[in-house]
Amino acid sequence: MSPSPTTSQPLDLRRAVAIGTPKAIDLWLDVVDDPRHRSDQLAELTAAEHARLGELMPVAVAAEMADTLALHVAVDTFRAVPTRRAADVLAALESDRAAEILRALDPVEREPLLAAVPAEHAIVLRDLLTWPAASAAAHMAPDVLTVDRSVTAAGAIAQVRDHRAKLRQDAHIGAYVFAVDGDGRLEGVVSFRDLVLADADTPVAELVEPDVITIAPLTDQEEAARTVVAHRLLAMPVVDDDGRLLGILTSDDASDIAEVEATEDAERQGGSQPLEVPYLRASPLLLWRKRIVWLLVLFVAAAYTGTVMQAFEDELEAVVVLAFFIPLLIGTGGNTGTQITTTLIRAMSTDNVRMRDVGRVLRKEMATGTLVAAAMAAAGLVRAWTLGVGGPVMLTVAVALVAIVLWASLISSVIPLLLRKLRVDPAVVSGPMISTIVDGTGLIIYFTTAKVLLPELAGL
Amino acid sequence: MSPSPTTSQPLDLRRAVAIGTPKAIDLWLDVVDDPRHRSDQLAELTAAEHARLGELMPVAVAAEMADTLALHVAVDTFRAVPTRRAADVLAALESDRAAEILRALDPVEREPLLAAVPAEHAIVLRDLLTWPAASAAAHMAPDVLTVDRSVTAAGAIAQVRDHRAKLRQDAHIGAYVFAVDGDGRLEGVVSFRDLVLADADTPVAELVEPDVITIAPLTDQEEAARTVVAHRLLAMPVVDDDGRLLGILTSDDASDIAEVEATEDAERQGGSQPLEVPYLRASPLLLWRKRIVWLLVLFVAAAYTGTVMQAFEDELEAVVVLAFFIPLLIGTGGNTGTQITTTLIRAMSTDNVRMRDVGRVLRKEMATGTLVAAAMAAAGLVRAWTLGVGGPVMLTVAVALVAIVLWASLISSVIPLLLRKLRVDPAVVSGPMISTIVDGTGLIIYFTTAKVLLPELAGL
């Protein structure tokens, strides 16, 4: 992942629009072929430049470009260009991409566009929009190539040619041809490649693979995406309860879903609510809303550390050097716990750890925790010695570190597994949450250890 | 992402092997079609069961299954079965998958296998193994379909049929056909679909798209994977400096690379070194090694919190209630910083934030930090009031919270950007690291504020 050298682009979109000829736009499309750079440059145009660009670029070219743009840039572009033009481009897009863009628009922006799209296409789009946004069906391409299983390979190719208009540009959608019965029920799949490689008079029935991995339309998008990737499919049919083929989920849709989910998980792990818009487009007020909820929850949860400290006020006054080690001890507990939860949650979200592995996880983490505790106790002894706090406090710090590391290991392995058991996504457990839980309990462990080990606290 | 119901599987692999007929294995393959469940069950077989399974399963079926298994399960299976058999399956696999498995084996395990593979195939595999593991070329499939651009569509289909042995099972590899000149230099790409849909006597030259996105063999695997996804390609040609076609990187390879990279980033963010093996296979000793380095680094870094506290020992003895708020204040600073770095690092690793956005990021984060600081100061006042610490300490806590939140916002937005500037992967900045940095500086801010605001500390 290296920084993209946008500065070295010799021709940018603004200059191409200023030149104002279709040839300049063509040249720009040739020179800037990375969709990420195109998105960047498009995002910086003014409304007037957008309108000018709309006149210069043929509908088919605009649709091809809109297919690979970052979604939020595509959506903004649809907002910026006149409705008539936007509807033409929308009609030229793959239906799943068109629906994705419509879904991101407000209903008041969406309706005029849908009204301007040809009626039969608008029906398809409205149908796609009825599926829940997090379902597999919301991401499916309904324009699927189907053939009758009674024909020959040559006949199937002829049927496919009749539908070539459906194919547009997306190689994923054209990868498989589906065999269906008279009622549209899926009977199997045949690859384009097999159609080509077979003799012309081979019955399609011989080429059809009946054993197809399918998915129900309401399946969660993340589960559906993982299935596409696990089976290394180019596209997976979405099939209703009656076995009817509704559309396909392609592997590039699956990649998009996986990336969005990984971003949301990363944000949750960092103790925020997921942003839902690209970072640079989030206003400070939105960032604040997404962050302040957890900050306040954690603040309230951490407030009991004050109560714990107040409870041990006498001990603290008697041996004020105990306070020196508070940040170090609770920090180490939080770090230990954060390491475990992030590794464990990632392993769970990639299906490498399941509920039945609870025993193995606990044994592994407690064994690891014992090794970690030993190393940290040694480090704690060294640090306490350099601060010159005397033998009993040195011992207190070392013993407390062992207990805190083991305790942090235990709760940070149990909590994600427990949440999964309760059917809550364990990704809600953030590093900050684990740190907060360990902070207060760590203080109790520390002061209790001190009371036991320090002679001057014996009477308190 | 729901827990997989493995317990409801009616036939498991161990029972199928115990029955001991090829039909039982066939039935198992039919019943258990999810590669994740197959991997689980295969991983639990003993060496004797592996050998028995090897006798029961035809080579082609074994190769098809090995293609989708989890890598570590596939590698273990190759270790468990006799060399002769393993070499047969290896030869039947796609070369990129075979190389991936060989790369995971020790050289002493690898050599006998390579020696048992047919010579011309072994040359291809050895060539793949020479590329660095993190390069695009290490993941490429060298078995590419090529045609001469001077032929017609029908002629191209005939050429492709001659090479059908190259195609094996992978639909990604067969998605495009590449036009090359006499020296193997890439001239363009033609899709299978276009070959089928064109009239038989159309010259291939008319169907060829000369404007192909390619990548150099030594490109970093993560950058290469992101390019495949951004352009929505099924496969991207890997081309050397002379324009020669070396192989292709397919979109399922790109998905695998993206998943591995996301896991490594998640582990780094949690303050561990990446594990490199699946979690359940990591021994406590390995987990300890991956974790203890950062724990000790952070412990040493956090040790200065003790020095800071010692420097303010007189203040702490004079107003011991100041200690009550230490975990709360430094915890809030750490949480604020962790929220920012995780969001920012994810946005950078998905190309949503680049170096040129430094100014926007800083303005956005400082504006957000101001809003957060106001809310946290209010929360801090409430908490200090409930602990009954009196007006001056309440004010100290509120002012310190504002300063700590703003400070945490500043350093946690600057550090990732600075690392990117220095060409260090910003994903090395973990939540624990930010917390540690904020802990000590937060204490200095807190005690300095107290010295200014508390009359009883005026003389110290």
Automatic annotation (TrEMBL), chains A, B:
Cross-referenced SMART domains: CBS, MgtE_N
MF GO annotations: magnesium ion transmembrane transporter activity; metal ion binding
GO cellular component: plasma membrane
Main location: membrane
Residue ranges of the TM segments: 292-312, 318-345, 366-387, 393-419, 426-447
UniProt-annotated location(s): Cell membrane; Membrane
Keywords: CBS domain, Cell membrane, Magnesium, Membrane, Metal-binding, Transmembrane, Transmembrane helix, Transport
Keyword Transmembrane helix applies: yes
Function: Acts as a magnesium transporter.
Oligomeric and partner information: Homodimer.
NCBIfam families according to UniProt: mgtE
Protein family: Belongs to the SLC41A transporter family.
Official protein name in the record: Magnesium transporter MgtE
Organism: Litorihabitans aurantiacus
Organism phylogeny: Bacteria, Bacillati, Actinomycetota, Actinomycetes, Micrococcales
